Predict the structure.
Amino acid sequence: MKAVSRLMNAVSAMALSAGLVVSGAMVAEMAATVSAYAATVSRIEVRGNRRVDAETIRNQVGIRPGQNFTTADVDEAVKRLFGTGLFADVSITQQGGALVVTVDEYAIVNQVLFQGNRKIKDASLTQAIQLQPRSAFSNQLMESDAEAIREAYSRIGRDEATVTSEVQELGEGRVNVIFHVQEGDRTKISRVNFEGNTAFSDRRLRDVISTKKSNIFSFMMRNDIYDEARLRADEETLRRFYYNRGYADFRVIASDAQLVDNEYAVTITVDEGPRYRFADVSIESSIPGVDIGALQSAVKTRQGAVYSAEDVEQSIIELTEAVAGHGYAFAQVTPRGNRDFENHTISVVYSIDEGPRAYVERIEIRGNNRTRDYVIRREFDVSEGDAFNQVLIQRAKRRLERLNFFQTVNITTVPGSQPDQVVLVVDVVEKSTGEFSIGAGYTTSASSGSSGGFSVEGSISERNFLGRGQFIRFSAAGGEDSRDYTFSFTEPYFLGRRIAAGFDIFRNTRTFENSDGDNIYDREVTGGTIRFGLPITEALTAQFAYNLSQEEYDRGDATEDISTGIEQALDQGKWTKSSVSASLIYNTIDNMQNPHDGIHATLTAEVAGLGGDAQWAKFTARANYYRTLSDELDLVGLLTVGGGHIVGYGNEDLRIFDQFNSSDRIIRGFEYNGIGPYELIDPGIDDDRDYLGGTTYFHATAEAQFPLPIVPESFGLRGAVFADAATLYGSDYTSAAVRGTDMEWRASVGASLIWASPFGPLRVDYAEPVVKEDTDRIRHWNFGISTRF
């Protein structure tokens, strides 16, 4: 029993001791806590600072001597000091009555240097990195900048580029940062293949996307650079291509690229699905007072037509605008599609409902390093505080894409500060907007036409001048006997409105020679144009211009080889033309660089006589209609019609130089100014004649364009066959020696080679006249810069 008693006493003692220990720990913890929440210091000491003033650091700490502070206050002080970006390390401790703030300052960047870079200039790399002179240095930023430089080289097709960094100590807390670049070889794309496609060939699909196989001109065109973002954009382009051609179930299953021996092999796997047509198309509305019958004309989808997502989108836009015009600003148009998988048809119901009342709180723009915010904002028809309208947002997206300033444009919405508010987030990826082009051509001289021989033309243009969205262009062209200079500037939003204003200044000189090479006369034309363009609809634009030019002529030695009409024009000496013109331009072309569908039409009236010597009225028209004849074969049809008429008025006679001359834009297979009215210089010699031009012309062209077999589509080469017809007749100049003033049609057939070259669009035509007059001058070959519109 004594043993048990001693054991119990020991246990009791141990329990008592444990209780005392626990109580002591709790007391100590409570005391520390009380001390933390009630600490004061008499002074604040700053240690380790070299450049940053101690008082500045004390102000950032925010704790004052004699005031109570807590551990939370210390934590906040540390965060504030780190947040200045000036310190690599910060610690705050209490030593007796002092609060000691110890800092380790970052070094200051003196210079950022690049070595080994040739393909990307220093200025471009400087924009890509974060470290800048007089900024705080950190190893993390230096590593991040090295990666940014590698990405910059990857975007120009140099994935093997390596970047190493070096820090050069200069003393007194200053460093130079040096990036050593080994650019490596340029990566290429060896092939672009498709799998799963049956409706369209690989060649046709390769023509649709922007990623191209490498060729001998790729170093200039830069379209063979593999970029994952570009490949994602190509996927979306393929979806649009298929959706607009009836393949509503189309999917991109996978797209990847394998890098082997510095060459990418790109493979895109697709599932096309069946081709659908529209079945029933109807409209329903839950909004009282909406007249469904009046909205039918806004629907662009028709029963029996091949399904097109673009037509559905356009119908939504038209219906939304029509309903909004009746006072329903928040109306939503939602298409409901019902697929008939057996018959491969889709019924569409456009449902009109009163949407939620949401407003645009603000518009955030990201990714525009060069383009100014207002250039992007002005493409929106909505502003902060306006009713949110998804149709207007999509329209703004298309406008931004058409600017051709950006690789990609993405507009998303996030909730605003209030339940009925949204924030529009616009993410853009900019691309190069400067262009340099050069081309060459060949013309055969005519007595009263342009001088002949080879000519070259070069131009430099910038579509987004200084990031302001302005267009500027300078071009120069010359041949053996010709010089042309032009400078153009366009402000697309004049006075903050959607009015394009601009001017053109030009100077042209020509030397005209006879068949023996003797100089007949020289002509110099200097002038300019001030123009304004006003959009009427998305497709229709009105343009007004004032034109002023002065012509000067110098006689040569062979003046006996010119007609009386030209002699009279030369006798007039300097000739000033002051005119106003008005044009209507209708444009629905899908792609101005590679048109497949749409209309481009221009109607112009010009009246001269507001001062100057000329007094005439001129009317011209030209329309181009493109239509894809076969998507599978990429066969495109083109119909062109045009005409013009000029008439003099007042006391001034219409000069020969004011009349129309034939050219390859009117009919091919004939020389410049090689058809129409002419004057016999020597009535005894039928072949000795000068062509005078005419007061009226009409022309038409039918053409089929197609990809060339065997030649890779990445070369940008296409072929064409065509048939032209034209007539040029009438003359205000009367003489017994004048012939050919009656309306006589000419026609020709031929073939062409069209090249979307790195120097601009070039074209070679061979034409054979099939309907002609004996007096016409023939020229089978034509080579020069292609002008579509």
About this structure: The chain has six domains: 2-105, 108-182, 188-271, 277-354, 359-430, 434-785.
